[in-house]
Specification:
The protein has eleven helices and eight strands. It is α/β, with parallel strands linked by helices.
Length: 280
Amino acid sequence: MSHKTVLDLRRMKAGNPPEKIAMVTAYDATMARIVDAAGVDMVLVGDSLGMVIQGHEDTLQVTLDDMIYHGRCVRRGLRRAHLTVDLPFMSYQVSAEQALRSAGRLVQEGGAQSVKLEGGVRSAPAIEAIVRAGIPVVGHIGLTPQSVHATGGWRVQGRGADAAAALREDALAVQEAGAFCVVLEMVPTELATELTALLDIPTIGIGAGPNCDGQVLVCNDLLGFDESFKPRFVKRYATLQDTMIDAVRTYVEEVRAGVFPAEEHCFHDKRAPSRVQRIY
């Protein structure tokens, strides 16, 4: 089975009726295999791995080598979903040339079919350079986690006339630079609805309401791996943290009680006697 392409994803928005795009963020081959089997259209290897996998408070410590490693892992688990990989902080902001080199590494070494980068007007030259080289780009506007210090934290973006106008400008700049898709993060529903109608390219929402062309959630969030992380935009489709803790607790108890491993978990040398014979 072939992987979904950029054309496939753009056709989903253009269809009559349109078809919603389901994207999930994953970081390893096992989870990639699971979400791929579940039928997601796109898998994102996000620089959110800095928080979810590495335990940092933000995404700013993630390196390009980190993204390449996790991209390679996820690619091995996919059979049909389209793979996009984030360009991390300071891997594309210096110049369009730097952005192109970094994007090329994500494709060549990380297995990406497309790359994602944050920013609208300011990132348009980088998007244009990458697209011109034949690498598809996903844009990302609204809340941009790599700019968390500049935006004053994890806050909804685009509230008020001026902020909304700036996001419209960003959205159009991303499209005109050649991106085939754009993520809208933590944007008021009304503005996200307007941008989705305004753009020819698909919009993927996270905290941007139901009217985007698709949605994205982190696999660990939708599966309930961390009960302490409860942003408004996340819906938990399972609470696996409790299930996993219970399973490991039972394992610990059985090891300490000598219950595990049982006979069915053991190997034997067939040449040895089946039971020890008492010698008189």
